[in-house]
């Protein structure tokens, strides 16, 4: 393989820049021509593809977001859109594509393969919802951001003796909510992977009040319900003063943690190695600190396991 391209797709994630830099520089190190595509799959369709040099990825390793811009491309979901994308790559002689993104981006990369482009995925999403890797690029930074925000909320919750309901991102995954809840010492965590009864939550809050505990933190994953809905439902069981806080896109921005930079650097370079080994249709990952490659077909059908012991521990510690 002589020419490859790199793009970022889906929600941006801190550490994507480290992965871009690593893929580009590793390719150059291996004497491969490397191209950068801006605006995700839309950029492929509209031919936003340019030859990259070492300097094109300089001074980005420490920045949040993605220097290549990202997109959610509806056109790429059509065969006609994907055909244009594949034709544009082939016209430049590009045989391999590294897709840095989430599960949706993997689905797109998988379909592009069918049109004769070798594709390798690099898992980057704050949601940590990709099977085949213990952790995705961006998750660690987002988790730390959320915990920092909840710490701030705790200050005011304590001062006013209130219950706060904090809504966090994660789409259908409870990973962010679960681990942020444990790390921030939340009393209650709602995640899509578990069914938590509002009546039980109200009972726990009441038991706390009876013991003299005045404030409470409830973390709710957006995949379960909104903070607003949670507040309305809780009010049916217990009369307490509540406030809601929707953390929103603050969770996605910011300087990548050292962990995300290391992960991005490892996986970006590994994706190049996989393409050079003739692999296609696989997602790069780390499992128990070893680099791994998992077939997209497997990634799509497997659900990432959540760790119930973390949920249990959080419950035991937050009485
Ligand atoms: N089934 C599919 N076929 C073709 N393309 C797809 C498919 N699913 C997703 N894509 C492409 O991948 C893009 C990114 O997917 P999506 O919006 O789900 O984000 P993601 O990669 O999962 O990242 P995140 O969840 O972190 O935002 C979509 O906008 C679309 O262009
Ligand atoms: O930025 P958008 O398009 O509103 O997407 C928000 C979604 O993207 C993510 O931040 C990443 O997948 C999800 O947690 C969230 O549901
Ligand atoms: Mg996704």
UniProtKB/TrEMBL annotation:
Reaction catalyzed: beta-D-fructose 6-phosphate + ATP = beta-D-fructose 1,6-bisphosphate + ADP + H(+)
Domain of life, per the record?
A: Bacteria
As cofactor, the record names:
Mg(2+)
Which Gene Ontology cellular component terms are annotated?
A: 6-phosphofructokinase complex
Question: Which Gene Ontology biological process is one annotated for this entry?
Answer: fructose 6-phosphate metabolic process
User: What Gene Ontology molecular function terms does this protein carry?
Assistant: 6-phosphofructokinase activity; AMP binding; ATP binding; fructose-6-phosphate binding; identical protein binding; metal ion binding; monosaccharide binding
Q: Which SUPFAM superfamilies match?
A: Phosphofructokinase
Write out the function statement from the record: Catalyzes the phosphorylation of D-fructose 6-phosphate to fructose 1,6-bisphosphate by ATP, the first committing step of glycolysis.
Identify this protein by name: ATP-dependent 6-phosphofructokinase
Organism (species): Jeotgalicoccus aerolatus
């Amino acid at each position: 393989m002589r020419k490859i391209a790199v793009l970022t797709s889906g929600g941006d994630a801190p550490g994507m820049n480290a992965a871009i830099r690593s893929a580009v520089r590793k390719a150059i190190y291996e004497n491969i021509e490397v191209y950068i595509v801006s605006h995700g799959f839309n950029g492929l369709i509209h031919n936003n593809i340019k030859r990259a040099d070492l300097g094109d990825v300089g001074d980005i390793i420490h920045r949040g977001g993605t220097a290549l811009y990202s997109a959610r491309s509806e056109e790429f979901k059509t065969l006609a859109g994907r055909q244009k994308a594949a034709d544009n790559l082939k016209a430049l002689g590009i045989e391999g594509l590294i897709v840095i993104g989430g599960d949706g981006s993997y689905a797109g990369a998988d379909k592009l393969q069918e049109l004769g482009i070798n594709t390798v995925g690099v898992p980057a999403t704050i949601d940590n919802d990709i099977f085949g890797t213990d952790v995705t690029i961006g998750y660690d930074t987002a988790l730390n951001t959320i915990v920092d925000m909840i710490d701030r909320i705790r200050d005011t919750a304590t001062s006013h003796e209130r219950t706060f309901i904090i809504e966090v991102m994660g789409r259908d995954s409870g990973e962010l909510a679960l681990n942020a809840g444990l790390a921030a010492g939340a009393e209650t965590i709602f995640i899509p992977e578990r069914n938590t009864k509002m009546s039980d939550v109200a009972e726990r809050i009441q038991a706390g009040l009876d013991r003299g505990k005045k404030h409470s933190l409830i973390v709710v994953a957006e995949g379960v319900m909104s903070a607003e809905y949670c507040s309305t439902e809780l009010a049916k069981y217990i009369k307490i003063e509540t406030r809601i806080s929707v953390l929103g896109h603050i969770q996605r921005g910011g300087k990548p943690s050292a962990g995300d930079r290391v992960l991005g650097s490892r996986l970006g370079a590994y994706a190049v190695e996989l393409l050079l080994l003739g692999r296609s249709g696989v997602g790069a990952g780390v499992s128990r600190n070893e680099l791994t490659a998992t077939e997209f077909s497997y990634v799509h059908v497997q659900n990432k396991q959540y760790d119930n012991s973390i949920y249990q521990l959080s419950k035991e510690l937050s009485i």
